[in-house]
């Protein structure tokens, strides 16, 4: 009988060498168990961080929506205030024109009536003249003498026709 040995066959030698890997070679060519565990922990940590970032982003987006809503409300309020101010300005202008007309009518009506210790009424002394008239009518008891009573009656008659 002839015994054949695989040791002499080049193909068998290569196949044998291929199948016989040392333990170090196996660990170097494949993932080590500790590497897999480390990678798994890193993935879990990354997933946790991604989840936290998503939550943070959601909170920031909600805050932005709220802020935009507040800004929109403030802009509407500002627009309303501006419209109200415009109406008030128009009313003030109308009142100023009316006051100006009343002032002129009062100056014309009282042009011939002289108050004691005052020049005749004019635009220059109008405020002082009106203050004096106001004082006279507020404190009529101080003006009870006949001369002052006649003056107050003359003023009443002079301004009687002014439309307010």
From TrEMBL:
It is found in: Nucleus. Transmembrane segments: none annotated. This is MYT1 factor. It comes from the Eukaryota. It comes from Pheucticus melanocephalus. Residues 36-98 form a coiled coil. GO terms for molecular function: DNA-binding transcription factor activity, RNA polymerase II-specific; RNA polymerase II cis-regulatory region sequence-specific DNA binding. Keywords: Coiled coil, Nucleus. GO terms for cellular component: nucleus. The keyword Nucleus applies.
